[in-house]
Design a protein that fits this description.
Length: 200
């Protein structure tokens, strides 16, 4: 493995891959000179469909972090997440909570290999492709994986939490590997924390 390949992924994520027997993915991590903080930027850099980007989004369900994996062409319906979890209220997590929970900054959160263990929901839309691309711990790096393997390694439960309203398509395409446009909290009137998260 070259030094460039070794340093493409965030060191924490590289260690997580090796620790789970996925070290063979490290040479497949792709690093870009420009950040791919949004799903659209990532898809353009990779040359794949927007829906092949896996967004790793951290929410707070009654104050407890939960990770939602969503395809890059869709938005999360917070009310559906609330129902899935049986929570009273679901909001977007603040940037400091994202870093504290995952060990990564917004813009580079991978789907697994986090600092702490959280509940994980994965939308079934991810299964529509043979390969999806997710953040490798930094806004500059992504890695490919079959969605089935990604869901399994993330310890995710398959759910249907995708927003069905297609009117926000233009806004969606601005989002990235963890990036989503601000969404209203479910179970409350206040808007969710407007944290731009990478679609990866």
């Amino acid at each position: 493995m070259t030094a460039a390949e070794e340093h493409a992924a965030h060191p924490r994520f590289a260690e997580a891959l090796r620790g789970t027997g996925l070290g063979e993915l490290l040479p497949r991590v792709r690093r870009f000179p420009e950040a791919t903080r949004t799903a659209a930027e990532a898809a353009a850099a990779i040359g794949c469909e927007l829906s092949q980007i896996c967004k790793s989004l951290i929410f707070a369900a009654d104050g407890v972090p939960v990770l939602v994996l969503m395809d890059g062409a869709s938005r999360v319906d917070l009310e559906l997440v609330r129902r899935e979890l049986g929570a009273r209220k679901v909001t977007r997590a603040r940037a400091d909570a994202v870093r504290e929970t995952t060990g990564y900054a917004i813009g580079g959160v991978p789907p697994f290999g986090h600092r702490t263990k959280t509940r994980v929901l994965a939308d079934r839309s991810l299964l529509g492709h043979d390969t999806v691309w997710a953040a490798a711990g930094t806004p500059y790096a992504v890695f490919p994986m079959s969605p089935e393997d990604l869901v399994a390694h993330a310890g995710a439960r398959l759910v249907d939490v995708r927003e069905q309203d297609t009117q926000a398509q233009d806004a969606r395409e601005q989002d990235g590997p963890e990036r989503d446009v601000p969404e209203r909290s479910a179970g409350g009137d206040a808007p969710a924390a407007g944290v731009g998260e990478r679609a990866l």
